[in-house]
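User: Sequence in, structure out. Go.
Assistant: Echoing your sequence, followed by the structure tokens.
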Amino acid sequence: MGRKKYSESRHFNEMWKHVKMARTAALAECDETFRVTCDLCVCPDNKLKPTIEKVYRILRTELKVECYFNEAEKNMLDGRKMGAIMCKALIKEKVFYFDEGQALELLQLRKKEFGDSAENKVDFNKWVANNFFINYKVAYLFSVGLVVETAKERLLRENNVLGKALNKQGWMTQYPEEKKIDSFNVSMVLGLGKADLKGEDLNMFMYAMQLYQIEQYTLATLQRSLQFVEGND
């Protein structure tokens, strides 16, 4: 029992590294004005990590039972499902905290400044995803980052050429963007944030399916690019 617990803790420690990477990436795209005006702070690791680990273990058990019923203890969860579990945990126990009153005032100010045109609304939604919804951005970035890592590890064993291509790319292939439409990543962050503000729980199984679609789109795109290169050699 002690050996299993140690192994599980080590596994969570690996995932925690990805949490910190997602946190750093989200913070890098957050406006200085938002940080200062809203007194943006990072929840200390020694408080946040054990809390998230506890929530993660509860949610993991829930999803395993949902997926495997009485066989839950005998089955493992793949990277997409693990990403979904931690995404929900990070939504419940947020990485950043800030003055919500000041943030709402800044939100309304930015909304007026951006205006009502379609392109400006896209810019405003991107601002929301990078700032007001920064915690949901961390949750989303973590989940995608974990899928990249687990897919890469699997492919380096099963399809070395494709695994190396994903490792070189370093991230999931981005869906095409249009000027008057929110990017896929912004839409995902907005969706997570709006649902949480409405009090809606993240459906981990369905979110794992979305991560699966992102993964498959990436691998299909990489495979086509490799075939194109081979065809032109």
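User: And one key feature?
Assistant: The longest strand covers residues 41-42.
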